[in-house]
Amino acid sequence: MSIETVKAIRAIDFHSHFVHGHPSDSKETREYKCNLPFILMMNEVCNVEKTICSTFASVLDPKAVCAENEYMYSLCDMVPSLYQWVVIDPRIEKSFEQAEEMLGTRKCLGIKLHPPLHGYSTREYGDRLFGFADERHAVVQIHPEEEGDYYLPWADKYRHMTLDIAHLGGAGHIRPIVEAKYHNVITDTSGSASIFNEIVEAACKAGCADRILYGSDTYDVGFQRGRIEYAAISDREKEMILRENALRIFPKLAE
Amino acid sequence: MKVEELSAIDVHSHFSLHGAGSDSPSRNVSLDWVREIARAAGVGASFCTTIEAGTQGQGAEEANRETFETADRFADIFGWVVVNPLEQKTYENAGTWLAHPKAVGLKAMPLGHGYDLKEYEGELFGFAGEVGRIIQIQVEGDASFVGDIARRHPHTKILLGANNLRGYYEAMEQATDENLYLDLGSGAQDMDMIVENLVNRFGADRILFGTDGLLSPGFIRGRVEYARIGEEDKAKILRYNALSLFENVMKEARK
C-alpha cells in the first residue's frame, strides 16, 4: 500500500474532547486550541471522518457531568461527525440513569470514566461501574489512574464489557490486552505517550493491532495520524488502527 | 513532488551502540531501531550524536569516535561533533572531528554535561564562529535567553534543538540577525498551533525537522504534513532547509 493509500483511509478518532465555554473548561492557549469548530476543521484537514467525544467540562468537573451529558447528547444530533461517550461518576446516581437512557441510542456509543480528575478510586467503585457496563455489553473508556494491569481483574470478571484503557504508553497497556481472558481489553493512541518511537510498534508486535484505536485526546490530530501512517508496522495494521477496529467495535459508526 | 514523497532530513537525532535504552518498549534508541523507524517514515538522513553523550556521562571524544565510526558505516547517518567545555582539549578534538566529511556541525549539551550555557557562552559560540560551523544546542526550561545569545554572536548560526513551549517563540523574535534556527525534535509539537504560529510569524526558512531520536519520526512528520501551512513550507521544514543549511556536507556525502 502506498502512503497515498494510507492517507486516504478515513480515520475515526476514538478519544476526544472539546471546550465550549463552560466555566470548568480546559484553557485554550496560543499553542493549543480545542474548541469544537477548531477540532472539526482539523478533522477535515487530517481526513478524520468521525470523532467520539465527551466534553472537557464533563471529565474535569464532577458537578458538570449530568448537564454536559445532556448537552453532548443534543449536540450529536446536530453535528453529523460527532459521537458520544456518556460520562459516569459513580457517586452521581443520575449519571447511571443517563447512561442507561443514552446507551443504545444512535450516537451514544459507550461509557467514559475519569477517576483521577473526578477524584474517586476504581478500587472502590470498580465493581459497580464495570458490573453496570457488563450487564449492558457496553464499551468503557477509562483514563487510567494506575498502570493498565490494575484493571485486568475487572476485565476478566466482567467479560461482556469491553474496556478501553486509554492513552497507550507502555508495557502496562500492552500486558492486559495480551492477558485478558476474554480479549475484552483495548487501548487508544490518544494523548502524548504514543509519540515515543517504539510503543505502537511494540504493541503491534505483541499481537494487539486489532485492539488499538486511533485517538487524539484533542492534541494535534495530525501528529497522531502521522504517528500511525509512518509507524514501522504493516499497512494492514495501520488500516485497523485508523479505522477498522472502531467500526468493528461500534458497528453503528458505519450507519 | 508531493510532501509525503519527500525524503526527510532529521537534523536532531541520537542512537546507542549499547542497547535500547531503559524505557523500552516505549522508547528505543538502539542504532538498528532508530534507522528502521527512520526508513518507515521516509527519513533519508539523520544527524546524530550518541545518546550516551548527553545522558550517561560519555566523554565527548568517545561519543564523537562512536558517532563518526557509525557514520562511516551507514550512508544515512551523519554526525554532530560534541563539545564539552568541562573537558580538556575539547575544542582541539572537535576541530579534528569537524574535518570528517559527514560532520554537520557542533553540538553543545549543557544539561547533559552539567554546566550553565550562559557561563560558557563566549568560548562555545566564539569557537563555532571561529570555525564557521553551525552549533546545535538544547536547553531545559525557558529558552528565551538564547535570542540574546544569537544577537551577541550574529555571525554564528545557532540551531536551537527540540523546540519546546517555553521561550522558543520569544527567542526567535529576539534573534534579529536571523541566525537562530529551530528544530522540532520535542514532544511539544503535539500542541496544535505551535508549528503554525512559528511559520506564520517567522516564515518556514529557519524551522527544521527533528526527532531527538526518542520520538517517533512519524509523529513529527505527521505534525508537519498536516499543519495548516503551505505545502512549500512543509517541504522546506522536512528537507530543503537542511539541504540549504548543510549544503557542503550533503554535497560531500553524495560523492
- Net shape of chain A: globular
User: Helix fraction of chain B?
Assistant: 40-55%
Structural class of chain A: alpha/beta
Rg over alpha carbons of chain A: 17 Å
Poorly predicted tracts of residues of chain B: none
Classify the helix fraction of chain A into a percent range.
40-55%
- N-to-C order of helices and strands of chain A: HEHEHHEHEHHEHEHEHEHH
Write the layout of secondary structure elements.
The complex is a heterodimer of chains A (255) and B (255).
Chain A: H1 3-7, E1 11-16, H2 36-45, E2 48-53, H3 56-60, H4 65-78, E3 82-87, H5 93-102, E4 108-113, H6 115-118, H7 122-135, E5 139-142, H8 152-157, E6 162-165, H9 171-179, E7 185-188, H10 199-205, E8 212-213, H11 221-229, H12 235-249
Parallel strand pairs in A: 1-2, 2-3, 3-4, 4-5, 5-6, 6-7, 7-8
Helix pairs in contact in A: 4-5
Chain B: E1 8-15, H1 31-40, E2 43-50, H2 52-55, H3 60-73, E3 77-83, H4 90-98, E4 103-108, H5 110-113, H6 121-131, E5 135-137, H7 145-152, E6 158-160, H8 168-174, E7 180-183, H9 194-202, E8 207-208, H10 217-225, H11 231-245, H12 247-254
Parallel strand pairs in B: 1-2, 2-3, 3-4, 4-5, 5-6, 6-7, 7-8
Give a summary of the structure in a few sentences.
The complex is a heterodimer of chains A (255) and B (255). With 255 residues, chain A is an alpha/beta fold.
